Amino acid sequence: MIYGIGTDICDIRRIRETFERRGVRFAEKVLGPHELTVFHDRYQRVPARGIAYLATRFSAKEAFSKAIGMGMRMPMTWRDCEVVKAPSGKPGLRLHNALATWFEAKGLTAHVTVTDETDYAAAFVVVETRE
């Protein structure tokens, strides 16, 4: 049964401008540990790819917060929700700390997809009950 659905679209130019103003602190606020590693690797090779990666993760976390009906308030935090890839390339969510505990206690599971184009990143999340 569907618990919630969330979608978000993000202007990559706005993410780039914020990153230029705030620097790596912005990425450290939004990205979890695994995501930060991927971000730094992509940004070093091609800065535009790093910024697009940051934007897709920002969008996915916004969509997830909408799907669980909380917005950005506890236990939902930026860093405790990570978008990870399966070996097949399929995106998934890895939750940490209080968010993971809350999610598991509710018996929920999530599906996520992300995409980006030149100026925009978008994400769609469906959260279901496991019963």
Number of strands: 5
Measured by DSSP, the beta-strand proportion falls in 25-35%
CA radius of gyration is 14 Å
Q: Mean pLDDT, as a whole number?
A: 94
Structural class by helix and strand composition: alpha+beta
Number of helices: 5
Question: Which descriptors apply to this entry?
Answer:
30% strand; 3-stranded antiparallel β-sheet; alpha+beta; 5 helices; single chain; Ribosomal Protein L22, Chain A
Q: How would you characterize the overall build of this protein?
A:
This protein is of the alpha+beta class and 131 residues long. The protein has a single domain (2-129), classed as 4'-phosphopantetheinyl transferase domain (Ribosomal Protein L22, Chain A, Alpha-Beta Complex). It has 5 helices and 5 strands; from the N terminus they run E-H-H-H-H-E-E-H-E-E. It has helices at 12-22, 24-30, 33-45, 47-67, 97-105; strands at 2-11, 81-85, 91-95, 108-116, 120-129. The strands form 2 sheets. A 3-stranded antiparallel β-sheet has the order 1-5-4. A two-stranded antiparallel ribbon has the order 2-3. Helix 1 (12-22) packs across helix 4 (47-67) and helix 3 packs antiparallel against helix 4. It starts with a strand and ends with a strand. Its EC number is 2.7.8.7. Its main location: cytoplasm. It is an enzyme of class 2 (transferase). Mg(2+) binds at residues 8, 62. Keywords: Cytoplasm, Fatty acid biosynthesis, Fatty acid metabolism, Lipid biosynthesis, Lipid metabolism, Magnesium, Metal-binding, Transferase.
